[in-house]
Design brief:
With 102 residues, this protein is an all-alpha fold. It has one domain. The chain is built from two helices and no strands.
Length: 102
């Protein structure tokens, strides 16, 4: 059973790493898209209608990027809170064990 726990643990870590890599790739692509759309919407050689479409694309892309970054931040906060809660639980448990032993 211990061997299976180790395999599941490694798969969980790999999945989390893959998710972080995927999220980073999406963020990079969205940032590149924003850079390109910024250039297109400020290009005075394009007609106003085309620049307007690029402005709308830029706005939509910025909204998606903000949501992805917000989700990432919430996830990071959740992991930090779990780590702090875990440390707090262990220190409380140790304190209770010490009181019982004394």
């Amino acid at each position: 059973m211990k061997m299976l726990d180790g395999v599941v643990g490694r798969l969980g870590e790999q999945g989390e790493r893959d998710e972080n890599d995927l999220r980073s790739g999406i963020i990079d692509q969205l940032e590149q898209s924003l850079t390109m759309s910024q250039g297109m919407m400020t290009n005075l050689k394009l007609d106003p209608k085309t620049r307007e479409r690029w402005t709308q694309l830029h706005t939509n892309t910025a909204q998606v990027l903000n949501q992805v970054l917000r989700d990432k931040q919430y996830r990071d906060w959740g992991e930090a809170a779990q780590g702090a809660g875990s440390r707090r639980a262990h220190s409380t448990k140790d304190c209770l064990v010490q009181r019982y032993v004394e």
